[in-house]
Write a structure and sequence with these properties.
By secondary structure, this protein is mainly alpha-helical. Helix content is about 75%, strand content about 0%. It contains 23 helices and four strands. A hairpin with a 2-residue loop joins strand 2 and strand 3. Helix 3 runs antiparallel to helix 10, helix 5 packs antiparallel against helix 6 and helix 17 packs parallel to helix 19. The longest helix has about 30 residues. The termini are far apart.
Length: about 525
C-alpha cells in the first residue's frame, strides 16, 4: 500500500533541512533554526498520521525501494508507530529548545545540521522494514551523534568521552552486523517481517539472538562498558536531552523489534535478566551519590535502560515499550528543565527534612505497599497477567514503599501519611491500567509472554530478593548512615566502584590519547 510510505517523508525532510543548514554553519544562520523546528514539527505530524493508519488499516510492510533486498522499506506497526511519535515529538521539543539555547554560538548552523541528521537517522531506524536499512540507520545514528558529542572539540574530556563512545559503538555495530548475516543466511531474506514469521530455533538463530543482545547492551550503556554515558557531559544540553531521551533507547527498540528471535534463545534471555538486573541496582545506587545533576541523570539513564533490559529478558516486551515512552518523556523534561532537575535530584538523594523513619516504620511501609498492590491487582489487574508482569509490579511497588516510609515516620504529620498512601494507590492503579492498555495495543505485533520455566522462576525470585533488599537498605539508610563504613562505601559508590577506571586501564590509555 502506498500509505505505508507516509513515514519516509519525515527523515527525508529533516535531511533536506540538514543540507541547507550545512551550507550556513556559522552564528545565527538566518532561517535555519526556524526551518529545522518546522521540519521536526512536520515529522511529528507525519508520525501521528502514520499511527492513525496503523489503527485504521492494521500493520504492514511497504514494498522495497531498491534491489536484491538492499534499499528502503517501511515496517509500520504498533511498535514503529509508537516510536515514530515519541522520537519525532522529543526531537521537535529539543530542536525548539535549541533555537534559544544555541543562539549566538559560533557554529550554531553546523550544530543544527547534525541534530537534524541524528533525528532523521533514528526515525529511519525505528521504521526500518529490512535489515540493511536498520543497520545503516543504526550506524548513521552513532556517527552523527559522535559529531554532536564533539561540538566543543577543544575540550579534552569531550574528546575522551567521544573516543570511548566510538569504540563501544563500533563493537555494537559489529555484533549487529554478525546477527544480521546469520539471520539472512538462515531465512534467505532481509525483510524483517518475514524473518520474524519464519525464523526457527536453530543454533544460528541462537547465535543471532546473542549478538543482538550484545549489540543492544553495548548501545544501552550497560555494565561494564557504561562509562561513556557518564562522561559525555561536555556536549550542549540539547544533545544530552536527545541522547538520553531518544538515541539511548535504540538498544531496547532492537530487542523489542526482534522479540520473536529473542524468545527462541532462553539462555540469552536469562543473560539479559541477570546483567540488566545487576546494572539497574548498580546504577540506581551510584546515582544517589552523585553531586552533579547531569551526572546523576546519566546514572539514572543507565539504571532505567538496565531495568528495560531486564523486562525484555523476562519476555515483557510490551512493558519494555511502555518503559521507553515513560523514561523518554521524563528524561527530556529533566534535561531541559535544569532547575526542576536540581530539586528532583536533591529530593532523591536525601530522605527529607520532615522525619526519619525507624525500622518499624519501614516494615509498615513495605507491608502497606504490598497490601495496596495486592488489593488493586485483585480488583483490576491480576486476571490473565503473566507471573513475570506481576513480579515486575512487586519490584516497582518497592519504590512506592520507600516513599511510604517517609509518611509512616513517627514524627511525620498525618497529612503526609495520607498523601503518600494516595500516591501509592495512584501508582498501583496506573501500573495496571497502563499495562492493560499496552498489552491491548501491542496484541498481534509483539509475542505474548510465555509461562515461566524453572530457570525463569529462579531469576524472578532472585530479582525480587535483590531489589527488595536494596529498597530496604535505601529506606533505612538514615539509621546506619553515621556508621564509619557508610562514609567509605559512599566514596566507592561515588566513583562507580571504579568499573569505568578499570575499563580505561584495559584500553591501555586509549581514551587519553590526543585527538587525531
Amino acid at each position: 500500500m502506498a500509505s505505508l510510505f507516509v513515514p519516509i517523508f519525515s527523515p527525508l525532510l529533516l535531511l533536506l533541512v540538514a543540507l541547507y543548514a550545512a551550507r550556513h554553519p556559522g552564528r545565527r544562520p538566518g532561517l535555519v533554526p526556524k526551518l529545522t523546528e518546522a521540519a521536526a514539527f512536520c515529522a511529528f505530524v507525519v508520525a501521528a498520521v502514520a499511527a492513525m493508519l496503523v489503527v485504521m488499516k492494521g500493520p504492514g510492510t511497504s514494498s522495497l525501494i531498491g534491489l536484491y533486498g538492499v534499499g528502503l522499506s517501511v515496517r509500520l506497526d504498533v511498535v514503529s508507530a509508537v516510536m515514530l511519535v515519541l522520537v519525532s515529538f522529543i526531537g521537535w521539543v529539543v530542536l525548539r529548545y535549541s533555537r534559544t539555547y544555541m543562539d549566538g554560538e559560533a557554529r550554531q548552523g553546523a550544530f543544527t545540521a547534525w541534530m537534524s541528521v541524528t533525528l532523521a537517522a533514528v526515525l529511519l531506524l525505528v521504521m526500518a522494514g529490512n535489515l540493511l536499512q536498520l543497520f545503516a540507520a543504526w550506524t548513521l545514528t552513532s556517527l552523527s551523534l559522535n559529531r554532536l558529542l564533539l561540538f566543543y572539540p577543544e575540550r579534552a574530556t569531550a574528546r575522551r568521552a567521544a573516543r570511548k563512545k566510538a569504540l563501544v559503538a563500533r563493537a555494537s555495530e559489529a555484533a549487529l552486523a554478525g546477527a544480521m548475516i546469520l539471520l539472512i543466511a538462515t531465512t534467505g531474506t532481509t525483510d524483517i517481517a518475514t524473518i520474524l514469521a519464519t525464523v526457527d530455533p536453530t543454533w544460528p538463530t541462537t547465535a543471532a539472538a546473542l549478538l543482538i543482545a550484545i549489540s543492544a547492551l553495548l548501545a544501552s550503556a550497560q555494565f561494564p562498558v557504561h562509562g561513556w554515558l557518564t562522561e559525555v557531559m561536555e556536549a550542549p544540553t540539547p544533545v544530552s536531552a536527545l541522547l538520553h531521551a531518544g538515541v539511548i533507547n535504540a538498544g531496547g527498540f532492537l530487542l523489542i523489534r526482534f522479540a520473536d528471535v529473542m524468545l527462541l534463545a532462553p539462555g540469552v534471555m536469562a543473560f539479559l535478566v541477570m546483567l540488566g538486573g545487576f546494572t539497574a541496582l548498580f546504577g540506581g545506587v551510584v546515582m544517589l551519590t552523585q553531586p552533579a545533576v547531569k551526572t546523576s541523570l546519566a546514572w539514572s539513564t543507565i539504571a532505567q535502560m538496565a531495568f528495560m533490559m531486564m523486562q525484555c529478558g523476562l519476555a515483557l516486551f510490551p512493558l519494555a515499550l511502555l518503559h521507553i515512552v515513560a523514561h523518554s518523556l521524563y528524561k527530556a523534561h529533566a534535561f531541559l528543565s535544569s532547575g526542576e532537575a536540581v530539586r528532583n535530584v536533591a529530593a532523591i538523594r536525601r530522605p527529607g527534612p520532615i522525619a526519619v523513619p525507624s525500622a518499624r516504620n519501614v516494615l509498615q511501609a513495605f507491608a502497606c505497599a504490598i497490601v495496596i498492590y495486592s488489593l488493586v491487582g485483585a480488583i483490576i489487574g491480576f486476571d490473565g497477567k503473566s507471573i513475570q508482569a506481576i513480579a515486575l509490579g512487586v519490584i516497582l511497588i518497592f519504590g512506592v514503599a520507600y516513599m511510604l516510609a517517609q509518611g509512616f515516620a513517627d514524627a511525620a504529620p498525618r497529612a503526609l501519611m495520607r498523601r503518600t498512601v494516595i500516591y501509592a494507590l495512584v501508582t498501583s492503579v496506573s501500573y495496571f491500567a497502563l499495562q492493560v492498555l499496552t498489552l491491548h495495543l501491542t496484541a498481534g505485533s509483539l509475542p505474548p509472554t510465555p509461562p515461566p520455566g524453572p530457570l525463569e522462576w529462579a531469576l524472578i525470585i532472585l530479582a525480587l530478593l535483590s531489589f527488595g533488599l536494596v529498597a530496604v537498605a535505601q529506606s533505612t539508610f538514615p539509621l546506619w548512615a553515621s556508621h564509619p563504613a557508610a562514609a567509605g562505601l559512599r566514596v566507592h559508590l561515588t566513583n562507580g566502584l571504579y568499573a569505568n577506571a578499570i575499563f580505561d586501564k584495559l584500553l591501555d590509555g586509549w581514551s587519553k590519547r590526543p585527538a587525531a
